[in-house]
Amino acid sequence: MRCEFKPYPCYVMADSLYKVGIGNSTRQFWFGTPPRAGPDVPYTFGLTGILVKLKIQIEHLLTMRWDTWGRFTERSAAYQPWIWTAGNHEIDFAPDLGESEPFKPYTNRYHVPFIASASTSPLWYSIKRASAYIIVMSSYSGYGKNL
Question: Could you tell me whether strands 8-11 and 2-5 are parallel, antiparallel, or unpaired per DSSP bridges?
Answer without folding.
Answer: antiparallel
